[in-house]
UniProtKB/TrEMBL annotation:
Protein name stated in the entry: TRAP C4-dicarboxylate transport system permease DctM subunit domain-containing protein
Keyword Cytoplasm: no
Protein task: Part of the tripartite ATP-independent periplasmic (TRAP) transport system.
Intracellular or extracellular location(s): Cell inner membrane
Topology class, membrane: Multi-pass membrane protein
Pfam name, any one: DctM
Lineage: Bacteria, Pseudomonadati, Pseudomonadota, Alphaproteobacteria, Rhodobacterales
Chief location: membrane
Alphabetized UniProt keyword annotations: Cell inner membrane, Cell membrane, Membrane, Transmembrane, Transmembrane helix, Transport
InterPro entries tied to this protein: DctM (IPR010656), TRAP_DctM (IPR004681)
Residues covered by the TRAP C4-dicarboxylate transport system permease DctM subunit domain: 1-248
Transmembrane feature ranges: 6-24, 45-66, 72-90, 102-124, 144-174, 186-207, 227-252
Amino acid sequence: MGGILPGLMMAALLSATVIIQVLMKPEIAPRITQRVSFAERVSTSAQAIPTILIAVMIIVSLYVGIATPSETGAFGAAAAVLVALVMGRLRGGVMQKALQKTVRTTGMFMLLLVGGLFSSFVLTRLGVPQDVSNYLTGLDVEPWVIIVMINILLLIMGMFLDPLSILVIVVPIFLETVVGLGYDPIWFGVIVTIQIEIAAITPPVGLNLFVLRTVVPDLSLSDTARGALIFVLPMLLGIVLLMIFPQIALWLPSVMF
């Protein structure tokens, strides 16, 4: 519930980023010159129904309690196979090709994950996160300054560690500190989630960049990174807005519980 309004806010900020880019460089989104009838628009829009149906099934399974957040990934995959089967799209070795691509993407992802977990293990054993936390909490500054410093640290960590490693390192160490400073843990959780999304598109270890590179082999990793980095700005702006207006994340939970 705490992520709904921040999610809508992030969607608006990311959409605004695309609009601004197109206004500044119209050539990246050329206008369609051919006329499209209303019937063609309806028929084309109808092609999105299966995807929407899968998304609805995933969301319903999560909020009704059928599946946990971790299990929704498997539930979504099963829903995609079911929809494709009903539509008769699993012919011609489609399933085999999908499984092959899944194995390649998963294998690449697991290698990155193992590297990230190894890095987090080494950092934890060396006591680096603990030392940083002790240093931050010992500063004689306003609490918001410490929150800013934690966000800067998360931003730097996101460039070199995978999301799971960041959670393993950050949450146990900083959560108690953040709560002790008087901040709500739900609010902090939303901010960490946005930071993890930033980490997923920041090189050199941006997992989404590697996944996209696997899905679209014609796209170079450097081009993918350059195209994604512009979206870091609206995400950082979203974090700033959450720091100024924490009720964006806290209002819905306070109304429901």
